[in-house]
Design goal:
three-stranded antiparallel β-sheet; about 35% strand; 1 helix; single chain; four-stranded antiparallel β-sheet; mainly beta; elongated
Length: about 160
C-alpha cells in the first residue's frame, strides 16, 4: 500500500515538473480586478486600483527613465481628465521572460463634479454621491500599448 502511495506521489511530482509555462503575447494585456473600497470621501479619500496584467517579453516598468507608463482616464467629462503613473519594474521569474501579476495604483484627491455644472469640481454637495468609472492602459518598454479596460464604478461622497 505504501509503495503505491509513494509511486503515486512521484508521478504527481513529474506531472507538475513537466508542465509548460504559459505563453503570453508580447503586447501587454490587462484586465480589471477591483478598487480597495467602493466609496471614498472627496478631497481626503484615497483608493487603490488593482488590475491584472500579462506581458510575453517581460519588459514592463523601468528604473532608468521617467516615462509614465500607466494612463488612468476619468470618463465623467469631455475632454476626459487623464492622470499618468509609473509602473514598477516587474522582473521575470526564472528563465521565463513572460510576466503576469497584479498592479496596484494608489490614487488620492478625488473630486466630485457638480451634476448641474460640469465645470465646477471639488465643491461640497451635501447628501450627494458622484459616480465615476475609469479607463486604464499601460505601455511596455518597447512602446507597445495594452488593451484599454474600464473599471467598475467608484462612488465619491461629496460632503
Amino acid at each position: 500500500m505504501i509503495r503505491y502511495f509513494i509511486l503515486f506521489a512521484i508521478l504527481i511530482c513529474f506531472t507538475y515538473a513537466c508542465e509548460k509555462p504559459p505563453i503570453y503575447d508580447d503586447q501587454p494585456t490587462i484586465s480589471w480586478f477591483k478598487f480597495s473600497k467602493d466609496t471614498v470621501d472627496q478631497y481626503s479619500g484615497n483608493v487603490t486600483f488593482f488590475f491584472n496584467f500579462t506581458d510575453g517579453d517581460g519588459d514592463l516598468g523601468s528604473d532608468f527613465d521617467t516615462i509614465q507608463d500607466i494612463i488612468i482616464v476619468d470618463t465623467r467629462r469631455t475632454p476626459n481628465d487623464t492622470s499618468f503613473y509609473k509602473l514598477p519594474v516587474i522582473e521575470p521569474d526564472g528563465n521565463i521572460s513572460g510576466v503576469s501579476g497584479t498592479v496596484e495604483v494608489d490614487v488620492s484627491l478625488l473630486c466630485c463634479i457638480s451634476p448641474s455644472n460640469p465645470l465646477i469640481v471639488c465643491q461640497p454637495i451635501p447628501n450627494f454621491y458622484d459616480t465615476v468609472s475609469y479607463k486604464i492602459r499601460i505601455r511596455d518598454q518597447a512602446g507597445n500599448w495594452s488593451n484599454e479596460i474600464a473599471t467598475s464604478t467608484l462612488h465619491i461622497s461629496c460632503q
